[in-house]
Amino acid sequence: MEYKLNREAVTVNEVVFDASQEQPIDLDLTLPDYCPDIQKIMKCQVYPCITAKSILGDCLEVSGTATMRLLYLDAGASQIRCYENAAPFSANIPLKRSVGNALVYTRTQVEYVNCRATSPRRLDIHGAFSVCAKVVEQTENHLLSEIEGEGMQQRKKNISISRVAGASQQQFSVTEVLEINDGKPPAETILRTDASAQIEEVKTLDNKLILKGSLALKILYESGLSDGMPECMEYAVPYSQMLDCPGVSDACTCDVQLEVMTTQVQLKSDSSGENMLLDTEVRLMAYVNAYLDTEISVVTDAYSTDVELTLEYQQKSLVKLLESVTDTCSQKNHFDFEEAGISKVIDIWNETRQVTAHMEDGNLLYRGKFNLCVLAMNSDGRPFYFERMLEFQYGREWTREVPDLYCDCAVTLPNISYRITGTSGIEVKTELRLDATLYQKNGYKMISDLTVNEEQPKVKDEDAALILYYANSGEDLWGIARLYSTSAERIKEENDLTDDVVEQAGMLLIPV
Question: What average pLDDT does the chain have?
């Protein structure tokens, strides 16, 4: 006796690796001759930047540059100076198995940095940062959808899923020559740069994707004037980029994430010969997952009315993309510098942020934290640096009752404003943008294969056409039919039933 097993191919994303590897920081540096002596360290931070990543067999190779940036006061304790040192790094991260077609999501996270000046010109720096990686492989599952053959009874389940239509990752650059505003002095040294990317529109074409959005650029520079403080410039740079993404069509729903990889700013002179131009290049990595909503039918149970079967089962997790949402909220914090006071803010920014989201009492609840960095002048006109880690929470109503919900989310800080209160306080208002993609991830037990035991035919009573069976209320007809090697449909026909379960306890006629 032969049975034909029909299978349906479903492409899914499978997370095969999600972990991190720590990289040590050990530096013993001497300031170059062009840098003045150190009177006081204001801020020392390491900025790791991943520039390349690849999978070779069962190993993920990541490389990049770790830039140490030191902001300090010179010998007169009145001028803010900057010194940078860049060093390459690489990480070989073993995977559990060889990986084929995959997206590699990477980021870096500074664990700690300790910096001390052993002399006015020497620095001793120790710390660590982590290379965090998630490898998502695009795999094809062949799910059993139909068993053909005489006497075969099968139970099916219809499942609504988001089938992966295409996935890609692609780098692109946004370049722009920016002007320093009239009234501000020309630049001599770049002290700090910051870039964040926002997606405002996603348009799908056949095998293509068009991204539109804007870059928020913030540049802090030193003018070189003997009595001048650092100057800050902010820009919004629009971008439009076409990406290759095989499998994408108008019917797809896309989950797109952007990562800022590198930001380079070079000083450039204008027609007057002064450094009033900023030649910028921001390199971005776009991660694209395109989904098609579809219904599939899988066989969850089966038996034969003629012969014994040995069934093999598998547990599969299938995902459905539900919705992408964007929220904005603001948070106010007050800080007081009673001893030194505050007279002017030179720059205010954020470097570290993280967020998680989950459902709670009918709300999508975000929780996270971010650090606030402030470079300012005290009441005596001397620069100082202040940093504080702040927590935030925000909830938005989400009334859909969906089990097994999980959320990919990110937070950016598009705007930080402030006002000085009195002589010693500052009130900071932080705007947070929360982007979340909501998925439903359900686990299903289904048949993966079966073996026909030809030597074990079902034994039937040839003298009986019907069997009397007392059924309990709520009993499943499938189980009764399986017990007597018949079909649930025949039991329903014989007893004039319409439901798949017994509504009221009583006697049933079982055809055999």
Answer: 92
3-state secondary structure 291-311: EEEEEEEEEEEEEECCEEEEE
Distance CA 17, CA 93 (A): 10
**Residues 298, 357: Cα–Cα separation, whole Å:** 32
Type of residue found at 444: Y
pLDDT at 402: 79
What single letter denotes the amino acid at residue 497?
A: L
DSSP 342-411: --EEEEEE---EEEEEEEETTEEEEEEEEEEEEEEE-TTS-EEEEEEEEEEEEEEE-----SSEEEEEEE
Q: All domains of the chain, ordered by start, with CATH?
A: 10-139 (no CATH), 151-305 (no CATH), 321-439 (no CATH), 459-511 (3.10.350.10)
Phi, psi of 251 (to 5 degrees): -80, -5
How many CB atoms neighbour CB 449 within 10 A? 11
The overall longest dimension of the chain from CA atoms, in Å, is 111
Side-chain half-sphere exposure of 481, counting CA atoms within 13 A: 27
Give the whole-angstrom CA distance, residue 512 versus residue 504: 22
* Nearest residue to 263 via CA among 348, 379, 178, 174: 174
479 three-state secondary structure: helix
Mean pLDDT, residues 162-167 taken together: 93
Tell me: the pLDDT tens digits for 377-418? 999 989 999 999 999 999 998 877 778 888 999 999 999 999
3-state secondary structure of 250: coil
Cα distances from 104 to residues 17, 61, 317, 320, 329, in angstroms, run 9, 11, 21, 21, 31
Contact predicate 254/290, CB 8 Å: yes
In angstroms, the CA 96 to CA 99 distance is: 9
Q: Shortest CA distance to 84 belongs to which of 212, 162, 191, 240?
A: 191
pLDDT at 449 over 80: yes
Tokens of 292: 């098609």
Q: Look-up: residue for tokens 């995902």?
A: 319
> pLDDT band at 227, cuts 50/70/90?
low
- Residue pair 444/315 in contact (Cβ under 8 Å)? The answer is yes
d(C-alpha 479, C-alpha 486), whole Å: 10
What digits encode the pLDDT tens for the residues 335-379?
A: 999 888 999 999 999 999 999 998 888 889 999 999 999 999 999
> In this predicted structure, what is the pLDDT of residue 327?
94
